[in-house]
Write a structure and sequence with these properties.
The chain has 186 residues and is mainly β. The chain contains 1 helix and 10 strands, in the order ββββαββββββ. The chain has one domain. This is Phage tail protein.
Length: 186
């Protein structure tokens, strides 16, 4: 098989967060920055941003043949994981699925939600912009996400402080797909 070198991809991605149901950028503007009125750029990342789509297929089984006659998709998990290089209180709000920020003369503060967070989490939407084959743009939109893993922040004398985050995607509706990929074409 011949290798098409223009299909090889390398380069950073940019991560955006918006409200669940936020107006998505049109497919035709995949190479443009999402509207700042709906999407917040989470800033620098470190060690890349990892997109994972984990599908579980369950085998069908019948008595009449020894081979597995087929399978059905029974579970799909999709996530975006990264290390945010800008450990701000604003970013912490997105990592903890909401909270209350305050500021005054010489300070800013943050308190996580604590009254209804167990039963009514604040869902958001996420966009990961990166590269597609041909050094064109690729956009991955997850339409309903929650920060679903532990959030870590380490302070050490010889390493940068980061926020680790993993956003998990969820079902939206019977007429709206939970995620979408768009590639720019030449």
């Amino acid at each position: 098989m011949a290798v098409t070198t223009t299909n090889l991809i390398m380069g950073p991605g940019t991560l955006y967060i918006g409200a669940f149901g936020a107006t998505e950028p049109l497919d035709t503007v995949v190479n443009a920055t999402p509207a700042a009125s709906s999407w917040t750029d989470l800033g620098g990342t470190q060690d890349g941003a990892k997109l994972t789509i984990d599908q579980t297929y369950t085998d069908l089984d019948v008595d009449q043949i020894v081979d597995v006659p087929g399978a059905r998709l029974t579970k799909r998990l999709f996530t975006i994981e990264t290390n945010l290089a800008e450990p701000t209180l604003e970013n912490l709000k997105y990592l903890l699925n909401d909270g209350t920020a305050a500021s005054g003369s010489g300070y800013k503060s943050f308190e996580p939600i604590y009254a209804s967070s167990a039963t009514q989490p604040t869902y958001r939407a996420a966009i990961l912009d990166g590269y597609a084959p041909g050094q064109l743009r690729r956009r991955f939109i997850i339409r309903k996400v929650l920060s679903s893993d532990k959030v870590e922040s380490t302070y050490k004398k010889d390493g940068q402080t980061l926020f680790t985050v993993k956003w998990s995607g969820f079902y939206v509706s019977s007429v709206i797909a939970p995620f979408k990929l768009i590639d720019e074409s030449a």
